[in-house]
Structures are given as structure tokens and as C-alpha cells.
Specification:
Elements (H helix, E strand, L loop, with lengths): L10 E7 L2 E8 L2 H15 L6 E5 L6 H9 L12
Amino acid sequence: MSDNAAMTGDFEFEVWQDDVAVASACSADRTGALRDALHYAAIYGQDGPVTLYEVKRTEVSMKDAGEWLAGHAAPPVSTQKD
């Protein structure tokens, strides 16, 4: 899958296989995005089961994020080297 996570489009679908996102389709037209995602699902589905997700985004303001973080402890950071 492309590293371009900021794809344009109002509607987005992802195709996942073996717990990995393998394709996504974005469009201002939901039907077009779904059609493209189903195409990718058919292609990747030849290699095994796939799951199709519709991506829903919720905008979070910097103010809200800061307030939430101020009230919660930061998650632990791993110091283990890969």
C-alpha cells in the first residue's frame, strides 16, 4: 500500500489481509471509492481472505487533544531496540 496516507477524497475504504492494510481507495464519490475497493479486494482475495473497511475520520482540535493529554499519563515508551 502507498505511504501516502493523506489521500484526497471524502470517502475512503481499506482492504486488509492478514492484519495488514494492503490497499485503499479514496474518492469524493462514495460509490466510486467502494467500486475501486471492491476491485482491490477481488485482486488480493485471490491470495486469501480479505476484510473491507470504510474509514471514518473525526477531526480533533489541538485544544481538545491537549486537554485530553493533560488529564492522562503518557503511554510508556519502549527502549528496546529492534
